[in-house]
Hints:
The protein has helices spanning 15-28, 50-58, 75-82, 89-100, 125-132, 146-159, 178-191, 208-218, 229-238, and strands at residues 3-8, 33-41, 62-69, 105-113, 135-140, 164-172, 195-200.
Amino acid sequence: MSILVVTGTGTGVGKTAVTAAIAALARAGGRRVAVLKPAQTGVAPDEPGDLAEVVRLAGDVTTRELQRYPDPLSPEAAARRSGLPVLNPPEIAAAATELDEFHDLVLVEGAGGLLVRFGPDGSTLADVAWALGALVLVVAEAGLGTLNVTALTAEVATARGLHVAGVVIGSWPAEPDLAMLSNVADLPVAAGAPLLGALAAGAGRLDRETFLEEARAGLSPWFGGEFDSERFQKAAAART
């Protein structure tokens, strides 16, 4: 099984761009890639969602969306408002397992953070990861406040029997401030896992070819990239 669950420390941290970057590198390496988005919220039925962005940036990957809710809320709240069916971890895990049979890598991209609820039973992405026995990748912000939410995410994951593979900074600016530079060394400590990348801010607005170059530069060899965590941390420390 080669399934990776991609979660964030919150909304708008760059999960989709990081998911697309991982998919782009895997695809460039000749691997068959599938991306599963269990719940897409805040997008109308006829509008492109996160998976459309993944395809635009990564190219020929298999995508599957299980449920779409028009309101920009948590999946549970959005389902309640719309009257549409809620999702449950067995359903999501079954879809991921099915994709895993025909692909070399399956990426499961969550909505918001690890404990955002799918339904009134309290089920979350953490339950999906546990059901799959999958590694969890945490996408975090660069700036002030990120250490607390990263540590909380990692602590909850560990308490639930999950293994955090690493943390990726979802958007690294060209001119980082002091907090961002300082956080480079502290984020892997907060996550209890290695820093596996820092994707350049605005990478998601690039064309496919340039995005692949940014993915290679911004992600660890663990994903097929060239990101050197030790060098990145030393460079950040030198600027503080």
